[in-house]
Amino acid sequence: MFDVIIIGGGPAGLASALTLGRALKTTLVIDNNNPRNKVTQASHAYLTQDGISPEALRSNAEQDVNKYEHVQRVLDTVTHVEQATDHFIIQTETTTYYARKLILAMGLKEILPDITGTQACYGTSLFYCPWCDGYELRNRSLIVSVPAAQVRHMSKLVLNWSQDIVVHVADDASLDDEDKAYLNSKGIHLITSAITEFQHKEGQLTAVSFADGTSINRDGGLIGIEVNSYFDFLQPLQLQREDNGRLTTNNFGETSVPGVFVVGESKDIMPSQLIDAASIGNTVAKFVAMQLIVDND
Q1: Is the same domain home to 95 and 154?
Q2: What is the pTM of this model?
Q3: How many domains does the chain contain in total?
């Protein structure tokens, strides 16, 4: 029986494990080495680690965690989780484990637009987060393809890095008059015809083709993606969710099921930078450790 089992070995999960290991709590990290950021070549805004690849950061973090005798890591895939009277049963493809507390750090499922060329360009010249990759896209000709509700916000944001942007409405919704007025005031060209292809050379965007037969040359872009945390293995827990799909939690990261906590991108259903995910993992792990200490008192 472990004190804590952490599902997910990314920055949030490993930061949680590090804190729990230092709190002398027996901890198991279960990870299947399939991170959402596997296409990312370099991560930024992490003090002392700016420009490091997510893979290298994870490797360094694993070495840090491995120093603590109370923490174990296994490479496996969780298939089923259920609650018993005073503990949790975690079934993987190979083994059954038991824990008093559970931390969900599995990140998010990511769904890219079903457009030819997206997969090849994603992570190289097409991105979703200007805070993560806007610097690398600075002063380039960009396409910003997002749902209508995000057009004004994303346009305003991306203009910080490049003045040469074309905006594309990625859904069937219409822009309101204020959105149109904003784009006109900034001289931003608006396209509503569906994108049919992101043309590229080895992942480097060269042009964007549209259903109306037109095409424009672009060097890079920001695109809208869909994310969620609906993992099949969680269903037996029947965790409560908000209207937007976010898992309901209290101020300590604990879900509607006592003893089940959530950290990282899974917590807010929002893609985040590595430093943010690690920070949440560290903070929530302290609450988990404190709960264990109180339980044992």
Answers
A1: no
A2: 0.86
A3: 2
